Amino acid sequence: MIIDHPLLGPRDAQEFVYLGDADLINRPDWQAEDAADAFHDYLYLRDNPAGVHRELWYHEQGDRSWLVVTRDTLTHEISKVELARDVARAQGRGR
Amino acid sequence: MGRSCVYKLKAMTALGGTKPRVDVFAGVKISENPDRALVSVSARQGHETVCRERARAFLGVDLPAPARAASSEGFGVLWIGPDAWMVEADHTRHELLASEIKTAVADAGSVVEQTDGWCRFEVEGSKVCDLFERLCNVDVQAMLGDAVVRTSIHHVGCYLWCREAGAAFTVMGPRSSAASLHHALIESAGVVSLD
């Protein structure tokens, strides 16, 4: 599998480490009133689609950037690759 | 009363020798290079432009684009990640390179001394591409001068810096794996020299 890195171009998947669902970047506020419930959902509730899935990959043997990869879990076709920090900033986050 | 003690400390290279190791094969020469100081610089969030300007003023060259390196008189700079670079310079003239660069970029960048974290080999010769094609999955034939990639050589994460297309490369790996990296280089060099 080849991942088309937004900065470095196509790179072999063996350079990357898979973390999981891209929603993991949306960590709940630990000081909120409902923090315990929010962290329960954050930790345990995950969509597991047969189809298009957004997931976090780490370019460990490369530039050490985190990527959000949109991949079809049925075909392994990768339709989009973004820097995770760009995704977070597009959501209005500071980092 | 304290007893005085005179230490006789001798500097060692990454491979443990008192002199840098040089291995010569038909078509490939591998030279250990212990003479370069290394420092990483990361632009702080929101200060990227200021960090670039201050670094350029000090280094005499623009911080390079992704997967590229740049050189000025006295300094080399490698892109190592988003808003992160490695600066290298002659160790004798810039032993305190980290503090020099920290003074230059001030609060616009984070600076980390890297010199003794890495070992470095200069690899050159007509068969240098044959060598690295066997060692890593980088398209070394396509690398132009001043292209830089991080890659894995025998499971050791290394920077591969093309100095002259098809002819000369610098490879930097973790110093604690210097002997493993050197072993990989000379084993493969022995094979390609027979072709």
Automatic annotation (TrEMBL), chain A:
The lineage of its organism: Bacteria, Pseudomonadati, Pseudomonadota, Alphaproteobacteria, Rhodobacterales. It comes from the Bacteria. One of its GO terms (molecular function) is sarcosine oxidase activity. GO terms for biological process: tetrahydrofolate metabolic process. This is Sarcosine oxidase subunit delta. Gene3D superfamilies: Folate-binding superfamily (3.30.2270.10).
From TrEMBL, chain B:
It comes from Shimia abyssi. The lineage of its organism: Bacteria, Pseudomonadati, Pseudomonadota, Alphaproteobacteria, Rhodobacterales. This is Sarcosine oxidase subunit gamma. It comes from the Bacteria. InterPro entries: TrmE/GcvT-like (IPR027266).
